[in-house]
Amino acid sequence: MNIVILGPPAVGKGTYAGFLSKKYNIPKISVGDLFRRAIKDRTELGKKIKDYVTSGDLVPDEIVIELVKNRLEEDDCKRGFLLDGYPRTVPQAEAMMKFKKIDVALNFVAPDEVIMERIGGRRTCRKCGAIYHIKNVPPTIEGVCDQCSGRLVQRSDEKPEIIKNRLVVYREKTKPVVEYLREKGLLADVDAHYDIEEIDKIISQCEKHLQKLS
Ligand SMILES: [Zn+2]
């Protein structure tokens, strides 16, 4: 089962992929992790990636493609994989169709308001780093950490206007890829608006899509 995972920031892709990875016993591969590992191991590709990342540029398609191709050729991917963070562009998607078959692209969708509330409600302790949520995981005393009495603050990248912008950028960038995969008949939408306590409702939708494959 070769599965590609799509979805906006904070929709919970990592969590769902972790669940599916255990259930189907296939590796979960994140392109962000591959970048970090290549940089740390100072491989040829890693050195190039580091240059782009340090200068704030996007890593070009041919480098991302080679990195992912190499990883998917490893033994643990023979029975399948869950790939998060790829393809991000149409050329990346086209390249992948040549070296590995994509069985399905699970596209996790949730309304902007849901994502805004999930991230926008987060509060982080300045002292110990504990994370709260004003609605879902509130501290006993407002604005004060239960564990260390530190002050709870909203991180600057979790402010509403920043999240809104990240969502706009995500949509603009991935729209062509989503359309491409839809045209190929590979896209499977998963309604991910549920709270984390209701994760079963999200996983069961994934399972329905995956059952059609076997
Ligand atoms: Zn604390």
3D structure, described in words:
The protein is α/β, with parallel strands linked by helices and 214 residues long. It is 47% helix and 15% strand. It is built from eight helices and eight strands; from the N terminus they run E-H-E-H-H-H-E-H-E-H-E-E-E-H-E-H. It has helices spanning 13-24, 31-40, 44-54, 61-72, 90-99, 112-120, 160-183, 199-211; strands at residues 2-6, 28-30, 81-84, 104-109, 122-125, 131-133, 152-153, 187-191. A five-stranded parallel beta sheet has the order 2-3-1-4-8. Strand 5 (122-125) and strand 6 form a beta hairpin. Helix 2 crosses helix 3 and helix 6 (112-120) crosses helix 7 (160-183). The chain is globular, with a radius of gyration of 19 Å. The model has no long low-confidence stretch (mean pLDDT 92). The structure holds zinc ion (ZN). Zinc ion binds next to loops.
As a percent range, the share of strand residues is 5-15%
Adjacency order of strands in the biggest sheet = 2-3-1-4-8
How far apart the termini lie comes to 8 Å
Radius of gyration: 19 Å
- Number of beta-strand segments: 8
Structural class: alpha/beta
Low-confidence stretches: none
Level of helix content? Answer: 40-55%
Summarize the biggest pleated sheet.
5 strands, parallel
Taken from the alpha-carbon principal axes, the silhouette is: globular
Bound molecules: zinc ion
| Element-level helix/strand string | EHEHHHEHEHEEEHEH
| Integer average pLDDT | 92
